[in-house]
Structures are given as structure tokens and as C-alpha cells.
Amino acid sequence: MSPTKHAFLSASSAHRWLECTAAPKMEAKFPATKSTFAEEGTLAHSIAELKLRAYAVEPMSQSVVKEQMDMLRTNELYQPEMDGYTESYLDYVKEILLSYPTKPYIVVEKRVSFSDYVPRGFGTADCLIMTPNEVHVIDLKYGKGVPVSPTNNPQMRLYALGALAAYQLLYNFERVHMHIVQPRLNAYGQETMTVKALTRWAEDVVIPKAKEADSDDGKFNPGEWCKFCRAKAQCKARAEKYAAMVETAHEKRDMTMITMPELGKYLEAAKLLKDWVEDIQEYGLSCGLKGIHVPGWKVVEGRGSRAFTDADAAFETLIKSGIDESVLYERVPLTLAKTEKAIGKTLFADLVGSYVEKRPGKPTLAPTSDKRPPMKLTQNAADVFSKIDN
Questions:
Q1: How many domains is the chain built from?
Q2: Is there a single domain that holds both residue 99 and residue 53?
Q3: What is the mean pLDDT of residues 267-291?
Q4: Is there a domain that residue 219 lies in?
Q5: pLDDT band at residue 255 under the 50/70/90 scheme
Q6: What's the CA gap between 310 and 186, in Å, rounded?
Q7: Which stretch of 87-91, 249-253, 322-326, 368-372 has the lowest confidence by average pLDDT?
């Protein structure tokens, strides 16, 4: 199914190397790792690809689709909810296809090259839809950590540049539509650009940054983009930047109270510092477990826990000793999320969707870059949400 090879300056890491051009060569010193979440996403992509191919790309009999789907469902990471979420992705693509009077040309899991702008640059687009004067680039994000915005998204723009390069001899593209589908968060977004604006961005931003990142003159620039960098815990530039933040408060003349502008800056610094501290703590522990001495620190045993060696035998002994079974067992219903996961999103919605209400989330502080709109506070928000909790 989907190819897994990545370019040195990949589209998926462009948000990082466009900001910190030293990152790619720094990361190359560390082995690539793959998490369970990434493998789960790969499986979901394979299911989505099969459904999309069967619907719009190549004729498949129901028996062939079922056989291939059954094979994918034997994966230990498969969950019934994947069927519902991949159907949401399929429906999104269908809606685009059906919006045209004649069926556009569609390809899935297409390897595209944007090497005209990035040395040896290539990536794999989940879905491309071509019409005479516009192209749609669609990316499925199976993660549920945070919504990914398509606005100013370098990964999507590089995929779009690759699509233009691959099909520009066949079509007279004028516009590019870049879509991100994140069904587990019910997040769907789109950015539209003219081809001229996209190529201008590539020439003005991508080419100089890619050239710098591919050279030995990359510049370190720590920031939020460090989150998924393999070198984040050992990067000295990041350590020096965030260690310097600790001294920021001492530079203020009035040490009695902070102003609102200062609070904003401190909150931003605190978020970055928190991430950095967690990363270096994890790195310090890994060093200690390998027997590498970290001056001033040691590895100790954390708080332990107790567990039955044989719970069934223990409970049988208790019951035989006169302890009532009702004392030993609790009947607890599954949470809404676990119930939906157990039976599948579609069936859950069909059977009990009318019994579900969406309650507002608690107020939370977010940077202005967050795409959610600010709350309309008509009264003290803390009092309102306190009543809901009660």
C-alpha cells in the first residue's frame, strides 16, 4: 500500500526545517522511531486508501474489497471505530467529486516530487483530484491530539507544488485547494491559493530555506516546531534559549506585580519551558537507565503498586470464606467514548445518537494562533461552568 520512505527535507517536517534550518542534519544523528500512534495512523490510511480506490479509482468486486478489508482488520491495532472515521474521509472526498458535472481525475497515495524547490524533495499525497483548471490536495490526519490547520500549512503546500509538477503538462491549473480531514476531531479545513501565489511562496520562502537546510550552514531556531524533532532533548541551542528564559523575570524593574503584556510573555515562555523540561527529564532518565551518570541526579524506584498473582483464585477463596460476591464485583457501564469505540461510530450514531448531547468544554487559555474563536463572556465564566460541574 502506502510507501514509507521519507526525503531528507520532507514535506511532513517542513514546518520544522523552514523555521530551524539546522534541524534536518541534527536529526540525522538520531535513529528514527515509530510510535504505536503512527502505526495506528498507517493502518487507518490503508483502510481509507482501499475504500477510496474501490469507490473512485479502480473497479473492484465486493468479494475482493471484503477480502482485502478482512486482511487489514486482522492487524492488532485495528479498532471498529476506524471504519466510521475512514467513511467520514471517504464522504468528504465524494462530496468534492460530486460537486463537478463530470467526474474529475483522481489518484490516491501519489508520490509527488517538489525537487524544483527542495533538493531531492518528495512526499506522498493521500489524494489528488484534478480538473481542467484546479487541483484538490487532500490529506487524512488520523491523530486526535490537536486539530491541524491547512492555513499556511507547508506540508500541504509542498504536496500541492508536487501535484502541479506532475500534472502541469496535462492541465492548465489556476487554483489549488488544500484540504485536511481530521475525522476523530471532527475537524475539516481548506485553504485555497492561486498557482501564482503558491509558486511565489515557494520561490521567496522555500528555495532559500531549503538551500540553507541542505548545506552545512543551517541556523538553529528553537520554538514550538521542536516538539517532534528527534534531537529536541539534546539540542544545545534549545537548552540555552530556554535556560535564558528563567532569568527573564529578574530583568524587570518593578518586582511587585506583573502587567498584562508581561503575563502574555510569561505564559508563552512557560509553555515552551514546560515542554523542554519534560524532554530533558525523559532524556536524563534514559541516560540513568543506561548507566550513564548525570551529575547531581540518580535513578530511584518510584512508588510501587500491589496486584494479585491470580485474581480468580483469590476471589474464589474469598467467596468460599463467606464473602458475598456482590462485595467483590462492581457493574460499571462503559463511558460514551468507550461505547462508541466498542460498537463503531456509525452504528453508535444510528442507534443512540439521539441520546447524546454535547456540553460546552471548560474555559481554557489558548494562544491567539489557536483557530478556535474566543468565548463570548456575558457573565463570569467561572460561575457558569461551576454550575455545570455541580
A1: 3
A2: yes
A3: 85
A4: no
A5: low
A6: 43
A7: 249-253
Tens of pLDDT, residues 145-155: 888 999 999 99
Name the pTM for this structure. Answer: 0.74
Among 213, 246, 262, give the residue marking a domain's end. 213
**Same-domain pairing of 256 and 346:** no
Same domain? For 125 and 243 the reply is no
Within a domain: 173? yes
180 in any annotated domain: yes
Domain of residue 332 covers: 312-353
If you average pLDDT over each of 251-260, 318-327, 357-366, 367-376, which comes out highest? 318-327
